[in-house]
């Protein structure tokens, strides 16, 4: 043992014992002995102090920056010297625990090295597959980058969500959302990059057919689903691709509702209804709170009094020479009147035949028959109560009635009636202060439906009117009912007689600061007021002219074109059945040409960021209108039974009438 010991320590420079015993020698992390070296020194050390120092160092934490090679070496050395070292330190339990932990960690290092080697071996034969996967990943990344680039560049488009056919609500809500800057309701039509939409133009064009959009004749829009408009001659002048989406018109399986009116009247949410009800119920009202606003008058087709406008009367009345305006003057007696008229039919439409006016107390202050200025074709006796005998000796003309009214009712007085716009248009009288019982009371189905006066009287006044089927309506009785309904409303407040379920979209957008322009055939030309403007062009070409003239001033523009529907014999509302002569109806070719060139000119002049929606609203209403006309000829008490007998035919007609379409164009910069 001594010989061997002498042989080992002959070289002082390499003697491990000497290096440990020398206090001046410095050990750096790079030159520090590893685990196997320490165990080896311990096995040959005869100095008790040196051995204890080695044991203490073995107990200390390992050097943090030892590399993996040192760990592997240490593990091998530990395994190799395990038996000898355990015999030498058998009496030191602390040391035994430390070496056990060291062994465990060393094994873990070896296992990890083996796992890495195995993974490396597995990777080798699959290099080609990995490369292919990388290529696919690059393709996916490329698509994501492209999509992100489209989003970053603000490319606007419309996407359909779900299989359900879109409704007018699905069309309206995203449009309002894009103008307000926030999504109102979840719909199945979504506008991508909504924030890039700066202006919205909505054109209601009833009468559109499948062939107008490049589809085979008599194709149902709901059967083809969303489709690109490629071969359409109607939009061939527009240098922008368009996408079309089927739109289901409002209604039920056996009834059809006006799509345009449904579009401009949106349903309130539960919270909106609650807030509106609380707001209205806390307010004490007078009759001035029931007066129609200028927007309401325009919406309900009233003739507009010049005092409501900022233009001279002669400029406004240039196309209404026969209309007269109430004027301001002082007078005694009542300052609130209710008026009702009766009309008969002539070959040019309705003509005035009786006028009745009552004061605030219900006293009759005026009641006269009127001599029509043209031959009557239908006296409508069961509704009007007018007969040929009653008009035989009448000499009072329309001009006489106008003179009497202007001397009785001041511009500052309030005029009450039920759908009073029909009476004032028949009288050709304009008055500024109007209370309409169809506005202050709602139909149970909500707008655009209007409640019947007979129903309102029965429900709220507990008495019946219009009961004489043979004698017809009594205008004095109707005027008194209107006056009583207004009094009842004032007593019970604004929430009385209304369900508070809808609101006009123009009012909502105006509140949000969005300037709106409305162009339709049912309103009279006027200048701008507040944020809403409405005009009544006579022809579709004037609609496009008005749109292009005002496109820079307004953010939301809505137009109702009817040339195509008239030329094709569509009847999409009651007013179109008798308010125009045949010579005023354009030909189908003329209507299509005006629409095609009007769209091209509008698209060219609208600014970048404009969305144009061309909406048919309804489908082919001709079969449905034919059935309704047949039912109108049947006596009222037998009409329900006749409707039931035609139920199958009616459902098929309604299905065609509700099959509409919406086409979207976007004026925007193309993405390279």
Structure description:
By secondary structure, the chain is α/β, with parallel strands linked by helices. It folds into 3 domains: 2-112, no CATH class; 153-266 and 505-618 and 659-672, Alkaline Phosphatase, subunit A; 285-491, Ribonuclease H-like superfamily/Ribonuclease H (Nucleotidyltransferase, domain 5). Helices cover 42% and strands 16% of the residues. It is built from 27 helices and 23 strands. Strands 2, 4, 5, 6, 19, 20, 21, 22 and 23 form a 9-stranded mixed sheet that branches. Strands 11, 12, 13, 14, 15 and 17 form a 6-stranded mixed sheet that branches. A two-stranded antiparallel ribbon has the order 1-3. A hairpin with a 5-residue loop joins strand 12 and strand 13 (364-369). Helix 5 crosses helix 7 and helix 25 (622-632) crosses helix 27 (647-657).
Count of alpha/pi helices: 27
Assign the CATH architecture of the largest domain: 3-Layer(aba) Sandwich
Q: Give me the count of strands.
A: 23
Reported by name, the CATH topology of the largest domain is Alkaline Phosphatase, subunit A
- Residue share in helices? 40-55%
């Amino acid at each position: 043992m001594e010989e061997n010991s002498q042989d080992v320590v002959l070289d002082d420079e390499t003697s491990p014992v000497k290096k440990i015993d020398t206090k001046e020698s410095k050990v750096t992390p790079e030159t520090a002995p590893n685990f196997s070296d320490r165990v080896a020194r311990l096995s040959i050390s005869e100095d008790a102090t040196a051995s204890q120092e080695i044991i203490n160092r073995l107990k200390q934490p390992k050097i943090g920056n030892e590399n993996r090679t040192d760990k592997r070496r240490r593990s091998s050395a530990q395994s190799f010297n395990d038996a000898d070292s355990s015999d030498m330190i058998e009496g030191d339990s602390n040391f035994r625990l430390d070496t056990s932990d060291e062994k465990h960690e060393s094994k873990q290092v070896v296992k990890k090295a083996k796992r890495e080697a195995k993974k490396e071996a597995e990777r080798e034969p699959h290099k080609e597959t990995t490369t292919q996967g990388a290529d696919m990943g690059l393709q996916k990344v490329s698509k994501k980058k492209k999509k992100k680039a489209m989003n970053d560049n603000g490319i606007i488009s419309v996407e359909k969500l779900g299989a359900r056919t879109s409704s007018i609500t699905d069309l309206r809500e995203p449009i309002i959302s894009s103008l307000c800057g926030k999504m109102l309701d979840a719909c199945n039509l979504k506008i991508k990059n909504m924030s890039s939409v700066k202006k919205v133009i909505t054109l209601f064009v009833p009468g559109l057919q499948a062939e107008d959009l490049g589809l085979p004749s008599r194709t149902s829009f709901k059967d083809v689903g969303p489709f690109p408009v490629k071969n359409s001659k109607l939009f061939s002048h527009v240098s922008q691709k368009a996408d079309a989406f089927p739109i289901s018109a409002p209604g039920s399986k056996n009834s059809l509702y006006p799509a345009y009116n449904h579009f401009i009247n949106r349903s309130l949410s539960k919270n909106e209804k609650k807030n509106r009800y609380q707001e209205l119920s806390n307010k004490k009202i007078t009759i001035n709170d029931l007066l129609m606003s200028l927007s309401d008058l325009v919406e309900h087709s009233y003739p507009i009094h010049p005092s409501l406008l900022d233009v001279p009367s002669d400029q406004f009345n240039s196309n209404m020479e026969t209309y007269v305006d109430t004027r301001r003057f002082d007078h005694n007696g009542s300052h609130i009147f209710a008026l009702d008229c009766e009309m008969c039919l002539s070959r040019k439409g309705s003509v005035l035949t009786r006028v009745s006016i009552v004061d605030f107390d219900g006293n009759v202050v005026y009641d006269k028959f009127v001599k029509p200025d043209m031959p009557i074709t239908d006296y409508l006796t069961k509704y009007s109560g007018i007969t040929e005998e009653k008009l035989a000796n009448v000499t009072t003309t329309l001009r006489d009635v106008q003179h009497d009214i202007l001397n009785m009712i001041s511009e500052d007085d309030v005029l009450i009636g039920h759908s009073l716009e029909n009476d004032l248009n028949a009288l050709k009288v304009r008055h500024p202060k109007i209370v309409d019982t169809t506005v202050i009371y709602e139909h149970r189905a909500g707008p655009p439906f209007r409640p019947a006066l007979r129903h309102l009287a029965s429900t709220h006044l507990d008495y019946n009117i219009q009961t004489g089927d043979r004698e017809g309506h009594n205008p004095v009785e109707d005027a008194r009912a209107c006056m009583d309904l207004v009094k009842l409303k004032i007593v019970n407040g604004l929430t009385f007689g209304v369900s508070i379920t809808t609101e006009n979209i123009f009012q909502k957008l105006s509140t949000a600061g969005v300037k709106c322009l409305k162009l339709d055939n049912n309103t009279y030309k006027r200048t701008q007021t507040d944020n809403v403007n409405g005009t009544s062009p006579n022809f579709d070409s004037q609609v496009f002219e008005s749109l292009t003239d005002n496109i820079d001033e307004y953010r939301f523009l809505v137009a109702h074109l009817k040339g195509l529907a008239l030329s094709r014999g569509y009847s999409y509302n009651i007013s179109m059945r008798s308010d125009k002569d045949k010579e005023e109806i354009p030909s189908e070719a003329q209507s299509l040409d005006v629409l095609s060139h009007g769209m091209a000119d509008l698209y060219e002049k609208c600014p970048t960021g404009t969305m144009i929606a061309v909406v048919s609203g309804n489908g082919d209403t001709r079969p449905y209108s034919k059935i309704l006309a047949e039912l109108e000829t049947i006596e009222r008490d037998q009409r329900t039974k006749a409707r039931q007998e035609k139920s199958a035919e009616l459902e098929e007609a309604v299905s065609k009438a509700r099959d509409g379409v919406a086409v979207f164009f976007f004026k925007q910069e193309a993405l390279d």
